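Hey, I'm writing a tutorial for new members on how sequence and structure tokens pair up, and I'd like a real worked example in the thread rather than a made-up one. If someone can provide the structure for the chain below, I'll link this post from the tutorial.
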Amino acid sequence: SFFGNFYIVNQDDILTVSVPYMTVEQSFYYVEAPNYDAKILRLPYKGGRYSMLVILPNSKGGLPTLLKRINLYSLKALLYLMDKSTVKVTLPKFKFDYQKRMGGALKKFGLHQMFQNTASFPGIARGNNTLLRKLVVSDVIQKSGIELDETGTVAYAATGK
């Protein structure tokens, strides 16, 4: 681990912050994308079934242009061009968490009863106990995140309340 500069594009400015980085040299799927002035790297998750794509603009302020140019179809075409090769990868360590209250969205999709006093959960609450028969969902919270450090990449998602 070492500290290095990380560049954040903010409107017309490029902010520089010092963040912890890590470096590894090993075999990854990788492609240079000159039409997008970028590089694309595939980092596999443990087990190899899923992976994270890292798309890095070649220039410090290149992210807005890259985002305007690239789309799902061009990205898919670039993925077919990826070759496995030994590359030296230097990435910032990071952790990202996201939480979203889903109750309102679920109600918009027609799932009303579980939020009402008339809700019925026979698979969860059985018997004549009055408390068990008054189960109601107050909200549903979706939490997801991703963490990247020397031990690898961890992605997670959970729903509950």
